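User: Good morning. I'm curious how adenosine-5'-triphosphate would be positioned relative to this chain. Could you predict the structure with it bound?
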Amino acid sequence: MTKSQPLWAAQQESAGSARPGAQPPSGERSSTEKPGGWERKAELERAARINQLGEMTAGLAHEINQPLAAIIYTLTGAVGRAKVGALNNAQMLEVLQTAIAHGHRAAGIITRIRGMAEQHVPDKTRMQLGEVIAEIVELSSSTALRRGVRLRCEAAPSLPAVLADRVQIEQVLLNLIMNGVDAAADARGRHVEVVVSAELASDGIIWVSVEDSGAGIPPGILTRMFDPFFTTKAHGMGLGLSICQSIVGEHGGTIRAENLREGGARVCFTLPVEARDAG
Ligand SMILES: Nc1ncnc2c1ncn2[C@@H]1O[C@H](COP(=O)(O)OP(=O)(O)OP(=O)(O)O)[C@@H](O)[C@H]1O
Ligand SMILES: [Mg+2]
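Assistant: Good morning! Here's the predicted structure, ligand included:
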């Protein structure tokens, strides 16, 4: 795996800048900053956060409205047909099952939003990233294989420990793997695989990378794919990458996406090594 490619730099800016979680941490005022400049900066950051909240709320309303509208439409049609005796038991059952499925979709959206809110207090413990990656790869392998995608783990042996919330890191890995599997399964005529790798960079940071043999990220999407509710999938919620970005940010890392020269995409995130292992 190669890392720190120049391609990253531009994408880090664009992928991260739209979201408050990706802003550089607001530190003390620098000695070169003009008096009043800091207040202005804080004001702008606050405005950006409000703007972000507005976008999220609009996206959420849209997402939940879709299954609710489908439930109303399905049941209203069925009531109309039942009134004139044009709905037999089997048809009634089908209508009810459709309504339940839409209801589950709305509930699923709420569950994931709740998950996002809860993620703000990570329960960090010392853990070996290589082991976590191997476990998640093994757990997801059969799902990937059912879709014709081979999943491989290439984590470097004896990586130093990280201080992280295991469940959250598993969630990040799963989201990235599933995106890779979706992309690889959709592409045809090539070796179809997703490779998860991890290695220690010289600056004491671990890079985890998920590469796929899919069609790559369409132009114009690189800057929006981390936005909440941005999706190009018929049944996607557009929350996976947004959740990954906030979790990685909470752990002091960054996450970026790029297209590979040989085709396919790579999403890569960093995690700082636990202080006593940084050596
Ligand atoms: N590996 C990839 N290759 C190509 N496009 C990708 C890849 N990963 C993400 N994307 C694009 O980014 C979008 C957002 O991804 P994200 O994981 O946030 O949501 P999603 O997969 O659509 O839905 P879900 O909420 O179920 O994860 C995807 O819909 C897809 O267009
Ligand atoms: Mg996803």
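The radius of gyration is 22 Å. Confidence is low (pLDDT under 50) at residues 1-34.
Let me know if you'd like a different ligand tried.
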